[in-house]
Design a protein that fits this description.
By secondary structure, this protein is mainly α. Helix content is 75%, strand content 3%. It contains 9 helices and 4 strands. The protein has helices at residues 3-10, 12-20, 40-86, 99-151, 155-188, 191-194, 206-216, 232-238, 241-268; strands spanning 91-92, 95-96, 223-224, 228-229. The protein is elongated. The model is unreliable at 257-269 (pLDDT under 50).
Length: 269
């Protein structure tokens, strides 16, 4: 949002071109407005409107990302606590606990994990469509931005384009990282019952222990639509050499289209 103001006060050539009408005002966001934005009054009004829209949209995205990541961290913490509590079902070898308390801990750990799986499923149903869009945008952005950086002549514009690319990729990486943490924690929670003093207790508890371990064996991982899981491996695959080849092919296609358009224009003239 500060780029138009910075360019206006830092570039005398730009100011002269704007006054002469040979160069349009640099907009905050390219958008349509129901008034003339080529004069100073309309331009200022459009800039205020575009700045408000950018802040409003950025606020919504930031709020969504923050809530989603906090929930993922909470899920991982709950799994870590569940592993710790399941490891203390039978107490310590030197301090055994009563049978009634043991059964209560069994039921509590089983209920908590069942509820956790259900809440994770509901959360994934809300997150998955958005993450599918994120991954699609990130894939296209890798190709388009690489091409745009090569054709830009302004160092400032190249910097802004690269910054946009880095932040877009980092946003997807953070989701994949936290989702991967939840997956790893859901796999490790099954170790909790094995870390307990089960071997020092009566054999009658082993059936309950098997049931609890079977419940804990359900892995939890969030998805990006029906096509991909949000893991670090998925993020790496998105940036693999084959995607670089796709970007180069896209770059070659755009260059070819531009050359054909230039040739058609030359023949027509």
């Amino acid at each position: 949002m500060a780029q138009p103001i910075f360019k206006y006060f830092s570039s005398e050539t730009y100011r002269q071109n704007v006054k002469n009408g040979t160069e349009p005002y640099l907009q905050v966001v390219s958008s349509w407005v129901p008034f003339d934005k080529n004069n100073i009054v309309g331009y200022l009004a459009a800039s205020v409107y575009q700045s408000y829209a950018a802040i409003y949209g950025g606020g919504w995205i930031t709020s969504f990302d923050t809530n989603a990541m906090v929930i993922m961290v909470f899920f991982r913490s709950e799994l870590e606590l569940l592993r710790r509590d399941s490891g203390e079902i039978f107490g310590k070898e030197s301090m055994p606990i009563d049978d009634g308390i043991i059964m209560k801990k069994f039921k509590d750990c089983h209920r908590r994990h069942v509820d956790f799986v259900e809440y994770a499923r509901v959360f994934d149903s809300c997150l998955s469509p958005i993450m599918l869009l994120y991954m699609f945008v990130c894939s296209v952005m890798l190709c388009v931005t690489a091409y745009q950086i090569t054709i830009e002549t302004s160092p400032m514009q190249r910097f802004l384009t690269t910054e946009y690319l880095v932040f877009g990729v980092a946003q997807l990486f953070i989701y994949c990282w936290h989702s991967n943490d939840v997956l790893v924690a859901s796999q490790d929670v099954m170790r909790g019952p094995y870390e307990s003093a089960w071997w020092a207790r009566d054999i009658k508890y082993r059936k309950d222990l098997y049931i609890l371990i079977g419940q804990f064996s359900k892995n939890v991982v969030f998805s990006a639509g029906p096509f991909a899981k949000l893991t670090v491996a998925t993020f790496i695959n998105l940036l693999k050499v084959q995607n670089l080849h796709t970007g180069l092919n896209y770059y070659a296609l755009l260059t070819r289209v531009i050359d054909i358009d230039a040739l058609i224009w030359w023949d027509a003239s």
